[in-house]
Amino acid sequence: MTTELRVLRPDDWDKWYGKLELAFGGVAESPEERSLWSDLTEHDRFIGAWDGDDCVGTAGAFTFRVTVPGGAAVQAGGVTMVSVASTHRRRGVLSSMMRRQLDDVRSWGESLAVLTASEPVIYGRFGYGVATHQLRAEIDTSRVRLSVPEGTDDVRLRLVVPDAPVVRDACEALYARQAAARPGMLERRPGWERLPLLDPESDRKGTSPLQCVLAERDGEVVGYARYFSKPDWDLAGPKGAIELRDLEALDPAAYAALWQYLFSIDLTSTVKTHNRPVDDAWQHLVSDVRRCGVSLRDSLYVRLVDVGAALEARTYQAPVDVVFEVEDAFCPWNEGRWRLTGDAKGASCARTADAADLTLSVRELGSAYLGGVSLASLAAAGRVRELRQGALAEASLGFSSIVAPWLPHGF
Fold it and tell me: Where are any strands of DSSP class E within 173-236?
């Protein structure tokens, strides 16, 4: 049995997407979700594997710009909607789609590919390494108190309609400012502003419609939070929950004012967060972090498609001059020795015949790329090998980021 890979035609989208839904459990998405993903699909970057008239594999890539250490936004292929029909497992369909995608990303001049993984075990063999994590929490607001900074009471809070155009535009402008300051965040191209506002009634599971509160100072929007309320009662009284979707703020006072508001909403005793940066500052405002149910989960996976260009695109926290011996069986054009020289002002990375200082695979470079995973910790796991004494410490410090990288939403 043979399969054919071909670029997705607009007329095939419904059939293609239906096969994707089937592969992810067979539950059809809401009309609102289907409409959004249909509109965002870049057909020339999406492919299907076909067995005759039957779609048996799906894969796509969005055009993204990802913030990297130093503040630059690097062009990347956002790999998405990958599936293989259960009837066609273990026949090379996934490998062929991954091969085609990475070849395409390279031909488009993009040095990175990024994805979120439904099953992390799948993508390591294609060179993707986990580069960011997301913090989850379930905060007992009946027992946890906040200690807020000076100026918090000067922030004005205002409930607004989340999808009102003036509100949406103000939140998007603030998000754009924040995205430029934290590695891993994505520039939202036109159309993507709809994603954080997506609120199909069928997905609410007992929660309220999406709500939004703005933080303002002197008439300027300096923060916002979008959230759902989920009422609940027992014999002792109300015990509702707030489920936070997203929160951004330009300064500590606005940030604290938003969290203070979430903590104080009537008839609730819990604030739940599902995706926050691992260094999120509320952890330093609470009176008892043990009552906050903190946990971590892997989030964004990064794959260097062009090692030299990718390492040149970011800056380095401390001066670094290191030769990497890179292993990359799936994209052999990356294999070999690369000398990286860089600091906080810029970097160069080129092939060299000099002796290697560190040896690692492209997967480890992907994990360390955004500054959230230490090369030293990878070395402790045997994933990086130091050949020149001192090179590991130098590279680990150079690759670090002053703020934790974070992917604010999926794709």
Answer: 211-217, 220-230, 233-234
Angle between helices 13-23 and 31-40 (to 10 degrees): 120
Distance from C-alpha of 223 to C-alpha of 210, rounded to nearest angstrom: 17
Q: How much of the chain is helix, strand and coil, in % rounded to 5?
A: 30, 35, 35
Please name which of 347, 391, 383 lies closest in space to residue 365, comparing C-alpha atoms: 383
Which residue of the set 123, 224, 227, 301 is catalytic? 123
Mean pLDDT of 118-122: 92
Look up residue 317 and give its amino acid.
Q
Annotation says 411 is catalytic:
yes
DSSP assigned state of 319: -
Active-site pick, 175, 324, 399, 411 = 411
Largest CA distance in the chain: 74
SS3 259: helix
In the beta sheet, which residues pair with residue 75? 65
Q: Which residue has the tokens 């860089």?
A: 342
**Helices of type H across 269-350:** 307-313
Supply the pTM of this predicted model.
0.96
> pLDDT tens for residues 102-115?
999 999 999 999 99
What residues contact residue 26 under an 8 Å CB cut-off, 6+ apart?
none
Angular region, 259: left φ>0, alpha ψ -120 to 50, beta rest: alpha
Name residues whose C-beta falls within 8 Å of residue 194's C-beta, 6 or more positions apart in sequence.
36, 39
Give backbone dihedrals phi and psi of 138, rounded to 5 degrees, phi first: -135, 95
**Mean pLDDT over each residue of the chain, to the nearest integer:** 97
Q: Is 316 designated active site?
A: no
Say if strands 112-116 and 73-84 run parallel, antiparallel, or are unpaired: parallel
The DSSP string of 329-356 is SSSGGG-EEEEEEEETTEEEEEE--SPP
Q: Write the DSSP string, 132-170.
A: -EEEEEEEETTT--B-PPTTGGG-EEEEE-TT-HHHHHH
